[in-house]
Design a protein that fits this description.
Number of helices of chain A: 14
Helix content of chain A: 25-40%
CATH topology of the largest domain in chain A: Molybdenum Cofactor Biosythetic Enzyme, Chain A
Mean pLDDT of chain A: 93
Strand content of chain A: 15-25%
Oligomer: homodimer
Distance between the termini of chain A: 48 Å
Number of strands of chain A: 17
Largest sheet of chain A: 6 strands, mixed
Structural class of chain A: alpha/beta
CATH class of the largest domain in chain A: Alpha Beta
Radius of gyration of chain A: 28 Å
CATH superfamily of the largest domain in chain A: MoaB/Mog-like domain
Largest interface: A-B, 99 and 99 residues
Low-confidence stretches of chain A: none
């Protein structure tokens, strides 16, 4: 089969999606699964509980896709319309399946409940459709080829039921029908300290590759390159990815920090562990956010001593040993104070490294001289030397983002020192 | 306008969505916003970074919808295709907008970075399109009527940028153009310390109301009731909501903590300010997360002194005055140590209140006696008395969620003390 002959479309049915009451996690799950199976997936559609609009969506989908995967609309209530609308669209009668009815009745009995007349509706499927069993819920789905070259799978909208049905029945079925040949395997390379556009320019020849493909993404200050290979097996895909990955890392140099699930905090953690070093933090404008990031990593207690949240100037003096005269003279947001904070926390907590952050997160508190977004980061090293770095993150991204960037930038500075 | 003449479609552009790399939270946000504005919304489409398929999706969407809302594909890289594909589809030339280029250059300069040539692409918009400013990022969107009766809005895929642009520019524009007639106005009531099912039972008669409607939601430990009224004006909607809101609050009692954008941290902040009290925190398993939450509130420096992240036991002793003998005897995760941490941080930071958190966040470190998920929270009050609360959050929700619940529960305890 060519890619077009094999392409899938995910159709999510439910007015609750169009009202924003729920997030479409089913579509993401199915997208990941289709990618893993190597089934091309070019469109997703969301449509409400409305016969006419579901039919219109089906008409479009079966023109452009060969595998239609429906979630939602299989329940017992009158606004659950997927099965009957599909049968009607393809002009095939619904037939009651006694085995489904029996199964639903048993499931209700086991929970000490009575099946309601409305559940009977769930036992009707198009006459030539196969039952797609639902081991963890009442409504079964179906596997149906209403015409040659078109396969329809239906699932309930409840994510846990859908996933179980997908894994237990749909995946083996699709592989047996030749859908799963060749898989797409991806690796995410992660970068900090370079803009998306700058990285894209550095690696521009790679962005036109066909297998693997390389695509840049950005978000929350981080830039990512996704390297995706299509191959018969995961090992073959990895073999296609590996040389490109090495070249991209070489081009990016120290702006590259990790792969897949790595974070700045986990990478710094590994570096500290490898060196047997420890870390302490002194936080002003981030208010504990840096410590929180560091301790997202399970096992961080082996290298993270802790820290001082010196939000108030008195705390900078009493717990970190910052000199009152310098606070007076230079202000809390200054190079001098950042240095004393880093040195103080390193020494008082007995750590190899001390990091400090002091800045103006905004929205208020800025002046002409010290505008919102001005941040100083101090790093005291195991030799007891201290360096200070000044950043101007601007005010336009807001308080939360400035604090996030400050904490991540501090981790990135330490990462570079530990390289 | 009739409903069909006013219906919107959300089109999300990005191969990362079709590979399942990211969850389509933008579509949910826009769905909620459209519902609030009373703009009918019947379809959502997801399509990859591919000119031909984007064009096909546009062709379908402008047959069935009158307001097309695009997210994604506005970045500087070659696979960002939304603007040029739309211009091409409607046969309108792209024109460079010097003011956009100037704005991007300034934003780069403020962060001490150089704009790259590829950013220039972001300054091109169809010649008769209006700029939709992006205050928090580089890529602007557009507001465009390529033909009579068809409005197109484009947004970058980065959720924070998209939301800001939507609120600041798109909503006022849509209302000014008559899209928002007959609005749905909602209020979110927020609760902590009660399960969704328990709250739903308490308020069950309200869940069948028609105008306003009342719907329960739960997430991240918080339970919410959305009260939505349909009316001609916001004031009329508010008048419908107000009595129901009062009744729901009365039923929920102290489990109700706030409305709309309130958070536990902002509510506690208001309480502390009103009383002229101050707060200090001593954090072990949350590693700074409680301080971080408290300082998300702008102006929190008026009541938040700071804290100690006592991740290592030595820090509990040296900076908080916890007795070594008690650490030895009872362990760091114990009522005795939680009490000493709360008292210690209150006293050493000179605050009215001291809160401490010590627990086993997991996944490792649990024992039969002290399993993963066991958390002690200590609260020292302005009279210098201390109370300790024990929680068993279990291990099944994972490390991050246990830490989050711990920090929020600590804030909720303080909130109740301050009532």
């Amino acid at each position: 089969m060519t890619d077009l002959q094999r392409s899938a479309e995910v159709l999510s049915v439910g007015t609750e999606l169009l009202l924003g009451d729920i997030l479409n996690t089913n579509a993401q799950f199915l997208a990941q699964e289709l990618a893993q199976l190597g089934i091309p997936h070019y469109y997703q559609t969301v449509v409400g509980d409305n016969v006419l609009r579901i039919q219109k969506a089906v008409a479009i989908a079966c023109e452009r896709s060969r595998l239609l995967i429906f979630t939602g609309g299989l329940g017992p209530t009158p606004d659950d319309l997927t099965t009957e609308t599909l049968a009607d669209f393809f002009g095939v009668p619904l037939v009651e399946r006694p085995e489904v009815l029996e199964d639903i009745a048993q499931k209700y009995a086991r929970r000490g409940r009575q099946m309601t007349p409305s559940n009977r509706k769930q036992a009707f499927l198009p006459q030539d459709a196969m039952i797609l069993p639902n081991p963890t819920g009442s409504a079964p789905g179906m596997i149906w080829q209403p015409r040659s070259g078109l396969t329809i799978l239906t699932f309930p909208g409840v994510p846990s039921e859908m996933k179980e049905m997908w894994r237990q029945t749909a995946v083996p079925y699709l592989i047996s029908q030749g859908w799963g040949q060749g898989m797409i395997h991806s690796r995410i390379l992660r970068f900090w300290g370079i803009a998306e556009s700058a990285l894209a320019e550095k690696v521009s020849p790679y962005l036109n590759m066909e297998n693997p493909t390389v695509a840049p993404y950005a978000g929350n200050g981080e830039v990512r390159l996704r390297v995706s290979a299509k191959a018969a097996t995961e090992a073959e895909a990895e073999a296609l990815i590996a040389p490109v990955e090495q070249e991209l890392k070489a081009i990016a140099g120290t702006d590259y920090f990790g792969v897949d699930d790595d974070t700045l905090a986990s990478v710094v953690g590994k570096q500290l562990k490898a060196k047997g070093h420890t870390l302490a933090v002194a936080e002003s404008c981030t208010g504990g956010g840096l410590g929180h990031l560091i301790t997202t990593v399970a096992g961080s207690s082996t290298y993270f001593r802790g820290g001082v949240i010196s939000y108030d100037n008195l705390v900078k003096v009493s717990l970190l040993g910052v000199r009152s005269a310098d606070l007076e003279r230079y202000g809390a947001v200054s190079e001098v104070v950042a240095c004393q904070m880093a040195l103080g926390v390193r020494q008082r907590l007995g750590a190899s490294w001390g990091i400090s952050i002091t800045g103006i997160a905004g929205p208020d508190g800025g002046t002409d001289e010290k505008p919102v977004g001005l941040v100083y980061i101090g790093i005291a090293n195991p030799q007891g030397q201290v360096e200070c770095f000044q950043y101007q993150f601007g005010s336009f991204r807001g308080r939360d983002f400035t604090r996030w960037l400050s904490a991540c930038t501090a981790l990135d500075l330490l990462r570079r020192k530990l390289l």
